[in-house]
Amino acid sequence: MSEETPTGDLTLRTMAMPADTNANGDIFGGWVLSQMDLAGGIAAGARAEGRVVTIAVDKMKFIRPVHVGDVLCVYTEVVRVGTSSMEIKLEAWVLRHRYGHREKVTEAMFTMVAVDDNGRPRPVPPLA
Question: What pLDDT, in 10s, does the model give residues 36-51?
Fold first, then answer.
């Protein structure tokens, strides 16, 4: 993964707000994780053409803190497709103070499973 530029597709952008901080004034890691889960669900849902659920988060690495006023940008890439599951590589980058320089803050690998209306796994179209 490059430290210079994000990899994958820009899937989600949002701004870190004061309500999302911990006692030290940094943004909660759980808030960043939830934004990454949203982005992973968007990417996996598009690939599966339907409902997906998160079943695992692996290799979660918090690299730098996120601050109030940073714009969080989450990039996604579907890296593996199984019968019903997908591995999604996610990178979270920030634009410091809305307009500043870009820094990678978090990366992870999410596993998502396509499910039907009853919550049972269903096939995902294979990668081309």
Answer: 999 999 999 999 999 9
Burial of 101 (0-12, 13-18, 19+ CB in 10 A): exposed
Distance in angstroms (rounded) separating the CA atoms of residues 26 and 63:
13
Query: In 3D, which of 80, 113, 110, 79 has the Cα closest to residue 92?
Result: 110
∠ at Cα 127 (123, 128), nearest 5°? 130
Predicted local confidence at residue 41, as pLDDT: 98
Name which of 28, 20, 42 is nearest 110 in CA terms. 42
Report d(CA 117, CA 111) in Å as an integer: 19
pLDDT for 48-103, tens place per residue?
Answer: 999 999 999 999 999 999 999 999 999 999 999 999 999 999 999 999 988 879 99
Phi, psi of 40 (to 5 degrees): -60, -40
Bridge partners (DSSP) listed for residue 95: 71, 102
Distance CA 92, CA 106 (A): 5
Question: Can you read off the two tokens belonging to residue 12?
Answer: 């989600």
